[in-house]
Design a protein that fits this description.
Keywords (chain C): 2Fe-2S, Iron, Iron-sulfur, Metal-binding, Oxidoreductase
CATH superfamily of the largest domain in chain C: Beta-grasp domain
Radius of gyration of chain B: 26 Å
Number of domains of chain C: 2
Strand content of chain B: 25-35%
Strand order of the largest sheet of chain B: 3-7-1-14-11-12-13
GO molecular function (chain C): 2 iron, 2 sulfur cluster binding; metal ion binding; oxidoreductase activity, acting on the aldehyde or oxo group of donors
CATH superfamily of the domain at 401-455 and 593-741 in chain B: Aldehyde oxidase/xanthine dehydrogenase, molybdopterin binding domain
Chains: A alpha+beta, B alpha+beta, C alpha+beta
Number of helices of chain C: 5
CATH class of the domain at 401-455 and 593-741 in chain B: Alpha Beta
InterPro entries (chain C): 2Fe-2S-bd, 2Fe-2S-bd_dom_sf, 2Fe-2S_ferredoxin-like_sf, 2Fe-2S_ferredoxin-type, 2Fe2S_fd_BS, Aldehyde_Oxdr_Iron-Sulfur, Beta-grasp_dom_sf
Structural class of chain C: alpha+beta
Pathway (chain C): Alkaloid degradation; nicotine degradation
Distance between the termini of chain C: 40 Å
Largest interface: B-C, 64 and 54 residues
Order of helices and strands of chain C: EEHEEEHHHH
Oligomer: heterotrimer
Number of strands of chain C: 5
Helix content of chain C: 25-40%
CATH class of the largest domain in chain C: Alpha Beta
Protein name (chain C): (2Fe-2S)-binding protein
Radius of gyration of chain C: 15 Å
Distance between the termini of chain B: 59 Å
Largest sheet of chain C: 5 strands, mixed
Strand content of chain C: 5-15%
């Protein structure tokens, strides 16, 4: 591990100041991604600013919204009664996302910033990784890939966004509170993540010194049905090959309103706007579901190892729609 | 170091009872000292520089930058190896440290000892090695058969070719063919390689190490250190699982070299990633089979070509090839056999021992073939196997007569008669997808499959296979007490109970202490090949009986045992125990009595497969195994569960992915082993048809379940999906996409 | 100087160089080697300990983050019924995962999640056992949960 200094400021403002004024500084929350990547030599901050004891923890109901402190743990959010009643698929995404031990450590803010599991990114001995070393190339595109993205991917990067939670939250149009020395700004989660494009090293809109302080989760109307469906190589403790987060409001056999997002397929948590368009005011039939799936998995960028994901992702979405509407 | 002590059972004792683990209390309190827990004040930490390339010339090594790091005490290369430069289980072909070239990714090149593990690691990374990278030889079939491929090893590219030839009729009414692949499996023990080497005043070294076979380690270490064997003393430290991966040396010579050079104790602990490079794996296999039968499904012939990739060095590949060949048709009567089994050298990771040892790969293929044959003959999977099953008196493909009970047909019938699990429960977590609750039953199809395996127990092909036990009865606190001393490695299998129980049974004395295993007693052989209950059990029994005979003579005059021990002192006997002699396979025909004991296990797998999403839920695994004699029911069941779970892993998820000689997934994030949610409940029926040649009639039990669970699960998935699925592990995409196509 | 409270004992810890995980601090500095290092990357559960009563992975936690927290390791259990149950049900073979399994199960009981075998399996699925003693682990946890 690279040498670093460790600080634990008492206030949010101090923490932000500490990071903002040191270009090699970084915040430390649950550490489940960060400490791992520091051991691997992928991350090498000079200063770690521990924010875990800042008063950014807890879930507060605010009308039709839940405001979740960024340092609330996955386990704490998963046990929130309101969330369980109104948006159970968020709870499912949390529970499927990690073991209890990891859920007790990992925070909501940190989860949104979870880094890719691309093994080439995580191994500094691999020279080509545009995410780690901009301009160096992409080993995954040329070597063996499987746990990689097919949407939002490009020859520059096919690293997958690994979060389960973020998939459910983009479906709900969650909003991220971002604090900096200049003040607070709000960014919808759907606009928070950046496609790799030519700059795979930039994964989101956060600027250095900005801290996620809270996430607003709009609660879907009562009567909304939801599901988080995750396909993986073993029964537990494993990342998604494909996942679907769906919320629908039904009117008899007709889908009145739908929210769709997919995981395991995109370089960012993938919101299925096209699918939502197809589903709105459509009958809940296999044909509808198939065209929603075709609409979502459009123009995939595949390499030999990820080709299977095109159909698997569609089926995952179709199954999720079938389950949630029946 | 923690010493496991025997303890008196309140009720019952001796063999047949479920004596609890004497080391169990230490293991549940965290006090049990695994090799990674050892600590001496002033000790140094070792680190290994490994090759990033699977094949390269080494043009130069500059250790200068590493030596300059404060805290570094020594940096060693092959030039510093004091004695012989090579070691190995069967051939001494593996360099202690690479000399002029590297033949696999991860091959050790240099060693560092420093006062902190991070310092040692960083210093190792500073060593400058100039490589001239070569094209790696990575296709085992090309390596074996294409003479234009440059030789990886000084022995060429063929480790062993073992034919088996019986009869001459290779036509039949019903013929099925198939090609099968088995991926490279890792033993993936939870406790990575580690050990502590302590320099001794006599110029020797004391090594505390997690291994499977102390004496074969000693045999390999001493010449490399240029020391007589009595100056290389090994003591078994706590072993965090083995499964074959600790049969070859890892850091034993390295730690000893650094300890001798620095005059300080040196500890090595591999990290998880290094562990993937630090031990051999299960050979991946490519197999082509042809089965011919008459219209009643009776086998006429089997032809097979089996290629096992041994990677860069020999390890135990020759014996693995021998097993694949001699057991290549399975436990079936086959009048005509034409098998060619090959082991190859390539620049892929070295492969060697893993639970099941060559029999696993062949079993997956021949059982897949039996299912195809059943279908072609219009018979059930059970019926085709029953019709061809061996029994006592049958001939193996090697011509060896099975001269002990082998009631395979009965075992299959019993398995078939076991009640099947009901439909999946209302708890959606019981369906494929598990806790992800991916279905309410849509797309889910149930499948049932059978697998039969036959495994040789103990070492085969003429190996002088024995164990040694020293048993001593003495007074301790005015009570008779037994000390049992062997060099046999307790790796979790429960040998410590078996030894205790045997001593209790033969001596009639409750109080038994198992002395820590070390090299001050004769060799026990390896904790592998399911052999320790047989061989070390036999040695403990023989030594106990010898002690008993002397005690009986001494008490014949009417004195009590306590009196005798008080007046005459302790009574001690040491005995070696050998199993029946075995013989090499004929190099041209494969014929010969190569095995001393054969063990059977049959599995039935019930799976639910979500054929649209490719998700597999193993609903239940049932097994019937003949163990000859149950020594400890609880521990035996654990062995069957464990072997079955590793077979499940091979069937559904476990594979070291290698591309161009490089390992792509050396981590527990990317190399998946079954979780508690993947392993279903088991139904077991354990038979006791004694083998009169073995102590108490027992049969080795740890490996057979590893063989048969894989093909049973694969067959069940085939039954559910209708897909050929000729490769394990089976992944969701293999099913989902194939069903689509 | 950081203070680490482990099993009720306060240990002063020099973390001038903070590159020390809780796992390495426990094992290498406090000589509490009962907590095991299986993968050192959060993928096996062997290093499970309790932090303020909640189960966490010591390998991905910096020791510095635990200043003032109450850490409980396997050495801190005082004849917990789970320990006895693990021995009686033979819920391990090599035992290397056992400290983590037991600490995870202790937390599981506290979380009231051991109602059914399916629950036990789900909430113990962050602890790998390569020896495959899973059935017996379920049996041991189930027994203690029933009698709790």
């Amino acid at each position: 591990m690279h040498e670093f200094r460790y600080e634990r400021p008492a206030t949010v403002a101090e923490a932000i100041r500490a990071v903002a004024h040191d270009p090699e500084a970084d915040f430390l929350a649950g550490g489940t991604t960060e400490v791992d990547l520091m051991k691997d030599g992928v991350f090498h901050p000079d200063l770690l600013v521990d924010i875990t004891r800042l008063p950014l923890r807890g879930v507060r109901r605010d009308g039709t919204m839940l405001q979740v402190g960024a340092l609330t743990t996955m386990e704490e959010l998963a046990s929130d009664r309101t969330l369980m009643e109104r948006a159970p698929f968020v709870v499912e995404a949390l529970l499927r996302g990690a073991s209890v031990q990891l859920r007790n450590m990992a925070t909501i803010g940190g989860n949104l910033l979870q880094r890719t599991r691309c093994r080439y990114f995580r191994d500094p001995a691999v020279p080509a990784c545009n995410k780690r070393e901009p301009g160096s190339g992409c080993e995954a595109v040329n070597s063996v890939a499987r746990m990689h993205a097919i949407l939002g991917a490009s020859p520059a990067c096919i690293a997958l966004h690994a979060s389960d939670l973020a998939v459910a939250l983009v479906a709900l149009d969650a909003v991220v509170h971002i604090q900096s020395e200049e003040g607070e700004r709000l960014v919808p989660l759907t606009q928070f993540y950046l496609m790799p494009g030519e700059t795979p090293d930039r994964e989101n809109v956060l600027r250095h010194g900005e801290l996620i302080t809270a996430v607003d989760i709009p609660l879907p109307p009562e009567g909304t049905r939801s599901i988080y469906l995750k396909i993986r190589d073993r029964a537990s403790y494993e990342f998604a090959l494909a996942s679907a987060a769906i919320a629908v409001i039904m009117d008899g056999p007709v889908i009145k309103e739908a929210r769709v997002a997919m995981g395991g397929v995109g370089t960012i948590p993938w919101r299925g706007f096209e699918a939502e368009e197809v589903l709105r005011e459509a009958p809940a039939t296999p044909d509808t579901f198939r065209s929603a799936a075709d609409g979502t998995i459009r123009d995939p960028f595949i390499v030999p190892g990820t080709a299977f994901k095109v159909e698997l992702a569609k089926r995952t979405l179709i199954r999720a729609l079938t389950e949630v509407t029946s | 170091m923690s010493i496991a002590t025997g303890r008196t059972q309140e009720t019952g004792q001796g063999i047949g009872q479920s004596l609890l683990r004497p080391d169990g209390t230490l293991k549940v309190t965290g006090e049990f000292a695994y090799s990674s827990d050892l600590w001496l004040d002033g000790m140094l930490w070792g680190a290994t520089l490994r090759s990033p390339h699977p094949s390269a010339w080494i043009r130069s090594i500059d250790v200068g930058p590493a030596l300059k790091v404060p805290g570094v005490f020594a940096v060693l290369t092959h030039e510093d190896v004091p004695g012989e430069k090579f070691y190995g289980l069967e051939h001494k072909d593996q360099p202690v440290l690479a000399i002029d070239q590297v033949r696999y990714q991860g091959e050790p090149i240099a060693l560092v000892a420093a006062d902190h593990p991070e310092t040692a690691r960083r210093a190792a990374d500073l060593i400058e090695v100039v490589y001239e990278v070569r094209e790696a030889v990575t296709d085992p079939r090309k390596a074996a058969f294409d003479l234009t491929i440059p030789p990886v090893s000084v022995h060429g590219n063929l480790v062993r070719h073992q034919p088996v030839r019986v009869g001459g009729t290779f036509t039949a009414d019903v013929v099925v063919t198939g090609e099968y692949e088995v991926g490279m499996q890792d033993q993936a023990f939870l406790g990575p390689e580690s050990g502590l080497a302590v320099p001794a005043e006599d110029g020797g070294v004391d090594l505390y190490i997690a291994t499977q076979w102390l004496h074969v380690d000693q045999d390999q270490i001493a010449p490399c250190l240029n020391l007589p064997k009595d100056k290389v003393r090994l003591t078994l430290a706590g072993v965090g699982g083995a499964f074959g991966a600790r049969e070859d040396l890892s850091m034993q010579i390295h730690a000893s070299m650094l300890a001798l050079r620095t005059g300080k104790p040196v500890k090595f602990v591999y990290g998880r990633e290094e562990s993937f490079f630090g031990h051999v794996h299960r050979h991946p296999a490519w197999m082509r089979y042809e089965h011919g039968a008459d219209r009643d499904g009776k086998l006429v012939y089997v032809k097979a070509e089996i290629v096992l990739d041994g990677g860069a060095y020999t390890s135990s590949s020759p014996a693995v090839v021998g097993n694949a060949a001699s057991l290549g048709v399975g436990p079936y009567e086959v009048p005509n056999v034409f098998i060619d089994a090959y082991g190859t050298y390539t620049n892929n990771p070295p492969c060697g021992a893993m639970r099941g040892f060559g029999a696993v790969q062949a079993c997956y293929a021949y059982e897949s073939q039996m299912d195809r044959l059943a279908e072609a003959c219009g018979l059930s999977p059970v019926e085709i196997r029953v019709r061809n099953a061996v029994s006592q008196g049958s001939l193996l493909a090697t011509g060896q007569v099975i001269d002990t009970p082998a009631p395979l047909a009965d075992m299959l019938r019993e398995l078939d008669a076991m009640p099947l699990p009901g439909p999946s429960s209302l708890d959606l977590r019981e369906l494929p997808g598990g806790v992800a609750q991916t279905t309410h039953g849509e797309g889910v199809r149930r499948g049932i499959g059978y697998g039969v395996g036959i495994k040789n127990i103990c070492f085969s092909e003429g190996f002088d296979d024995y164990s040694t036990a020293r048993v001593r009865v003495e007074l301790l606190g005015d009570e008779p007490h037994v000390l049992v001393h062997t060099a046999a490695a307790e790796v979790g299998q429960g040998l410590i109970m078996v030894k205790t129980q045997i001593a209790q049974t033969e001596l009639g004395i409750d109080r038994v202490t198992i002395v820590p295993a070390d090299t001050t007693v004769g060799s026990a052989g390896s904790s592998s090949a399911s052999r320790q209950s047989y061989v070390t059990g036999g040695a403990v029994r023989a030594a106990s009986l010898a002690v008993k005979e002397r005690l009986d003579a001494l008490t014949a005059d009417g004195r009590s045992l306590t009196q005798v021990l008080a007046e005459e002192g302790p009574v001690e006997e040491t005995r070696e125990y050998r199993h029946r002699r075995t013989f090499p396979m004929d190099p041209l025909t494969g014929q010969g009595d190569s095995h001393t004991q054969l063990a059977l296990c049959v599995h039935r797998a019930v799976v639910d497969v979500d054929v649209e999403l490719g998700l597999i839920k193993v609903v239940e695994l049932a097994a019937v195994q003949d163990v000859g004699k149950i020594l400890n029911p609880l521990a035996l069941e654990g062995q069957i569960h464990g072997g079955t779970a590793q077979g499940l892993g091979l069937a559904l998820m476990e594979e070291i992915q290698v591309r161009d000689g490089k390992v792509l997934n050396p981590s527990f994030t990317d190399y998946l082993i079954p979780t508690i949610l993947d392993m279903p409940p088991m139904k077991l029926s354990i038979l006791e048809n004694p083998d009169p040649h073995a102590p108490y009639g027992l049969r080795g039990a740890g490996e057979p379940p590893t063989l048969s669970s894989t093909p049973a699960i694969a067959a069940a998935v085939r039954a559910a999906t209708g897909l050929p699925l000729s490769r394990v592990p089976i992944r969701p995409d293999d099913i989902a996409l194939a069903v689509l196509a | 100087m950081t203070t680490l409270t482990v099993n009720g004992t306060e240990y002063p810890l020099d973390l001038a160089d903070p590159r020390v995980t809780l796992l390495d601090a426990l094992r290498d500095r406090l000589d509490l080697t009962g907590t095991k290092k299986g993968c050192d990357q959060g993928a096996c559960g062997a290093c499970t300990v309790l932090c303020d009563g909640r189960r966490i992975l010591a390998c991905l936690t910096l020791a510095a983050q635990c200043d003032g927290r109450e850490i409980t390791t396997i050495e801190g259990l005082e004849s917990h019924p789970l320990q006895d149950a693990f021995v009686r049900h033979d819920a391990f073979q090599c035992g290397y995962c056992t400290s983590g399994q037991i600490m995870s199960a202790v937390a599981l009981l506290g979380e009231n999640r051991a109602g059914t075998d399916a629950d036990i399996r789900e909430y113990m699925s962050g602890n790998l056992c390569r020896c495959g003693a899973y059935s017996n682990i379920v049996a041991a946890v189930r027994e203690v949960a029933r009698h709790a």
